[in-house]
Amino acid sequence: MPWSDVDAEEVQRHLRRQVDLSTRLRSAPEAVVGLDVSYAKATNQVCAAAVVIELESLAVAEVATVLEEVAFPYVPGLLAFREAPILLEALQGLAHEPEVLVCDGYGIAHPRRFGLACHLGVLTGLPSFGVAKTSFIADFVNPDRRRGAWSPLKEGGETLGRAVRTQDGVKPVFVSVGHRIGLDQACDMTLRLCPRYRIPEATRQADVASRRVLRTTGRSGGAPSGASESR
Predict the structure, then answer these.
(1) Tens of pLDDT along 118-156?
(2) Residues near 222 by Cβ (< 8 Å), separated by ≥ 6?
(3) Could you tell me which of 224, 226, 9, 228 has the C-alpha nearest to residue 111?
(4) Which of 146, 137, 180, 147 is closest to 26 using CA atoms?
C-alpha cells in the first residue's frame, strides 16, 4: 500500500523525538562520508553515492554507489522518503566505518525539524549534518562577503542553522545539524571541506560519482525541480 504524505509526516514527527541535539563530537573525525543522489531524466532511476573523504588531505578514500528506481514521489519536505533508502544502501557498500555523514540537504532547518540529515542520522545512529545550497524555511541576513562569515538561520525566534560563506564573494551555503553533532562543529567542518569550491568536497564528490554512474549507463543526471529546498 503506497505511503501518503500524512503517513510520512507522522513518521517524521515520531523519529524527530530520537534526534540528539545535545551530543557533540569529542574530537574531529579522520574522515567524513559525503552523500548525494542524482536523477536520470524522464525516468524513476536514481544513483546514490557515498564517498569517504579524508578530512586532512580531502582525498577520496572510497566510493560506493547504488543505481535503482525510486517509488516515493517528489514532495517538498519529504525527500528523505525518496532518497534515504538508496543512500542507506550506498552506505552499506562502504568498507570503511563512517564517522560523520555530510548530506546535500537539511538537518533541523526543516518544517518539522527533521530533514534528510536528521533522518539518516537517526536511522544509522551516526553524527550527521546537512549543507544545502538554498534556504528552505528559515530567514537570514546575508553574511559578510569574506570566507568564514556567517549569519543565523532563524524561524520564529528559533535558530535552526547558519548561512555560511565558504568562499569570498560567493553565495552562502546553509548548514544545519542533523544528529549528534554541534552547530559550531558542523560549520567548522564545512569550511574545512570547502578550500576551493562553494560546496563541501564530500558532497561535491558524491555528486560527481553519482552523475558519472548515470553517464556510463547512458542516462544524464540531474535533480528534481526544487529538490535542493526540500531534503
Answers:
(1) 999 999 999 999 999 999 888 999 999 999 999 999 998
(2) 38, 39, 41
(3) 9
(4) 180
